[in-house]
UniProtKB/TrEMBL annotation:
Stated family: Belongs to the ATPase epsilon chain family.
Protein name stated in the entry: ATP synthase epsilon chain
Organism encoding this protein: Streptococcus zhangguiae
Any single GO CC term annotated in Swiss-Prot or TrEMBL for this entry: proton-transporting ATP synthase complex
Protein keywords: ATP synthesis, Cell membrane, CF(1), Hydrogen ion transport, Ion transport, Membrane, Transport
Lineage: Bacteria, Bacillati, Bacillota, Bacilli, Lactobacillales
Subunit structure: F-type ATPases have 2 components, CF(1) - the catalytic core - and CF(0) - the membrane proton channel. CF(1) has five subunits: alpha(3), beta(3), gamma(1), delta(1), epsilon(1). CF(0) has three main subunits: a, b and c.
Gene for this chain: atpC
Length: 138
């Protein structure tokens, strides 16, 4: 079976390193499905989930929440560099829900104060929290 190596790197080091038969990511341009032998490319990732179908079992899927980043595909090595990455099993959903509520309050306050910078930061924090909740509930 053809396979690829998937590595996810954050400032804390390598957060994920496994062999995969298929990877699905969302770039800023749209979804990208990757099989072994994919054309080489570099793309900007959106704040979203990454789906990795592992080679050890066709039903084994890892879900990873990333806060954007860069993906590089070179031969059969996929390298993802992101500020943070969390596997579904490692996400504290209740903590993510509290972060979501906090971001919603901050977004509302920023909109009321008409503070564009604060509004942008709160919107990103909200998007990250929602992504973590979605992946954590898989």
């Amino acid at each position: 079976m053809a396979q690829m190596t998937v590595q996810i790197v954050t400032p804390d080091g390598i957060r994920y390193d496994h062999h995969a038969a298929f990877v699905l990511v969302r770039t800023t341009e749209g979804e990208l499905g990757i099989y072994p032998g994919h054309v080489e490319l570099i793309a900007v990732l959106a704040i979203d989930e990454i789906k990795v179908r592992r080679i050890d079992d066709e039903n084994h899927v890892d879900w990873i929440a990333v806060n954007g980043g860069i993906i590089e595909i070179s031969k059969d090595l996929i390298t993802i560099v992101s500020d943070s990455a969390e596997r579904d099993r490692d996400i504290d959903v209740s903590r993510a829900e509290r972060a979501k509520l906090r971001a919603e309050r901050e977004l509302e306050e920023a909109q009321h104060a008409q503070n564009i910078d604060m509004e942008r930061r709160a919107a990103i924090a909200l998007q990250r929290a929602i992504n973590r909740i979605r992946v954590g509930q898989k």
